[in-house]
Amino acid sequence: LALTLGPVLSVHAADAPLVLGFSQVGAESEWRTANTASIKDAAKQAGITLKFADAQQKQENQVKAIRSFIAQKVDVIAFSPVVESGWDTVLREAKNAKIPVILTDRAVNVTDPSLYVTFIGSDFVEEGRKAGRWVLDWAKKTVPQGEVNIVELQGTVGSAPAIDRKKGFEEIIKADPRIKIVRSQSGDFTRAKGKEVMEAFLKAKDKKIHLLYAHNDDMAIGAIQAIEEAGLKPVKDIAIVSIDGVRGAFEAMVAGKLNVTIECNPLLGPQLMQLAKDVKAGKTLPKRITTEEGVFTADVAAQELPKRKY
Ligand code: AHR
C-alpha cells in the first residue's frame, strides 16, 4: 500500500491548486468593494483557492487572520494592511513558517523589508501631488487674490493612503502661500463619517471654506450631502477634489457636484494572482510594483463614465 500511495500523493501535491490567504481591510468604500470583487474573480479565473477574511478596518482582526492562515499552512499570504505600523511580529511568524507574504494596495512600515516579498499598489504620495497640482492651478484661476482656505477629510488614521495623500498634497500647495489647510480630520474613508465631519466643518463658520480635499471619493460624496443640507452648492460655493475615480465620483461630476477625481486603481486581482503563482514557483519578484493612474475632471466625466470598470 505504501508503495502505491507514495507516488499518487506526490502527483496530487504538485497538481493541487495554490492556496492564497487574503486579509482585506474591510468594506469601507466603493473602491474597496471593487478591489474585493477583483480579487475574488481573479482567484476563480486563475484556479487559485482563496481564503478570504474581512478585517472590518481593525488591525487586530488582520493579525488574527494572518495567524490563522499560518496555522492552515496556506501557500501564500496576501494582505492590504489597514495601518502602516505594528506588523513586525506577525510577519516574522509568517517568515519563520516559510510562507511568503505579498502586500497589496497599502504599505507597511517594518524594520526588516525581507518580511514581505513584494508590494503591489498605487503611489499614494503621487496621488496627493496630483490633487495638489490641480488645486494650485484652480486657485490661480478662481481665487486670484486673498487667502484660499481648504478643509481636508483624511482617510483612516495611520493608514498609508491617509499619510501619503496628505504628504504629497502639502508638498505641492506650499508653492502658493495663500493656500492653507484650515481644518483637517479623519472621515475613516466612509461616506457616513465624511458627511459627519463635513457637517462639523461647516458649523464652525469662522472661516470661509473655498475647497474640500477628500482623501477618497466616498468621503467627498458624504460631504456633498452635508454641503447641500447646509444650503450651499458643491463646486459653486465649495470646490471639491477627491481620490479614487469610482463610478460614484463620475456620477457626481456629471451632476455638477464634484470638480475632479484622481484615479486610484482597485483592480489588482489579476496581477496579484500572477504574483502568487510566481512566488510559489520560486521566481524573483520586484520589491515594488506601482499601478498606472490618471486624473479626471468634470468636463470629461460624461464621456468617461460608460468606460469605467468600477
Ligand atoms: O487604500 C486605498 C484606499 O482605501 C482608497 O482610496 C479608499 O477608498 C479605500 O478605502
TrEMBL record:
Superkingdom of origin: Bacteria
**Organism taxonomic ancestry:** Bacteria, Pseudomonadati, Pseudomonadota, Betaproteobacteria, Burkholderiales
Periplasmic binding protein domain residues: 21-283
Q: What is this protein called?
A: ABC transporter substrate-binding protein
Per the record, the major location class is other
Family indicated by similarity: Belongs to the bacterial solute-binding protein 2 family.
Subcellular location per UniProt equals: Cell envelope
Q: Which UniProt keywords apply?
A: Signal
Q: Which organism is it from?
A: Roseateles amylovorans
Q: Which InterPro entries match?
A: Peripla_BP_I, SBP_2_dom, TAT_signal
A Pfam family annotated for this chain is: Peripla_BP_4
Entry's Gene3D superfamilies? 3.40.50.2300
